[in-house]
Amino acid sequence: MNSSSVNTYPQSMSNLQLCDTLYYGRSSNQTLAAIGSEFNRRGLSKSWCDTETNKLYLTKTIDWVADQVEDKEDSEEDASAVVHNGDYQPKSTIELNQVTEQAQLGDLSGVTQSKNVSSHFDYQYSRPDYYDKEESYNVGTAVKNKELVGLDQSHEVDVDTKMYAFNPQTNQYELQMALQEQTVTKSNIRLIDDIWLEENENSYSMHKKERDNSDDKQDDFIETNRHSHTKLVTLIGDLDKLAENKDVRREYLTNLSQVNFFMDKK
């Protein structure tokens, strides 16, 4: 739900922060092992996280819709009374979808869970404004000999929205703002031969178009583009044995390749 990083000790995190960082791809400067330990200490569960996250998401979406309707009605009350007598028909929809699958390949087995939340708001053709949001969570695991050797998590949010204002001179709605943004957070962890390999990747892109309300530039638009991307790879363990013993190194790379293939194949 929240894409900002949680940079505090797991003991100080809220229950939802533990859920976000452990299951939903929210970034943190703490290891998933430490977060998972605190998660288990509190007696939390994945089903509890799913329930509370959905409740929070629905609450925020309803609040957003209510704010948008109120702002629109306040800012354009006079124009709407003339054109449509204020008879707007706001409508919001939310769709939830979750899929859980199991897979096995040789000694490796795992579970993949995908959750998608789609929300949409518009005025049902009484005016052209709209808001679309697609949010997805994906978690995949790999287990060998009853030990977790792979954990992949991703969280993606796509937003597309347009806002209009009625121009009584042209008797038409004119675009005031258009926004498209995407936030992607990924985390891949491999725990093979007591070596912890973690790769975290975050990206954000945004394109915004706003009408210039200056008196001499009302037909012009100000466009803003932003993009950021970060990638961090962490390797923890006895690396000397990999550097000094080629047989150990070969076995590690073989096992790593097998786990990566299994995770990609799922």
Jot down its keywords:
266 residues, alpha+beta, seven-stranded antiparallel beta sheet, 7 strands
Protein architecture, described:
- This protein has helices at residues 15-23, 32-41, 46-75, 77-83, 240-244, 246-265, and strands at 91-105, 108-122, 130-144, 147-167, 172-192, 195-211, 221-236.
- With 266 residues, it is α+β, with helices and mostly antiparallel strands.
- The protein has a seven-stranded antiparallel beta sheet, with helices on both faces.
- Helix 1 packs across helix 2 (32-41).
Global shape: elongated
Strand order of the largest sheet: 1-2-3-4-5-6-7
Q: Distance between termini?
A: 25 Å
Work out the helix count. 6
H-E order: HHHHEEEEEEEHH
Our Rg estimate from Cα atoms comes to 24 Å
Largest sheet: 7 strands, antiparallel
Q: For the residues shown, what is the average pLDDT?
A: 85
Report helical residue fraction.
Answer: 25-40%
Secondary structure: number of strands: 7
Beta-strand share of residues: over 45%
| Main structural class | alpha+beta
Low-confidence stretches: 75-86
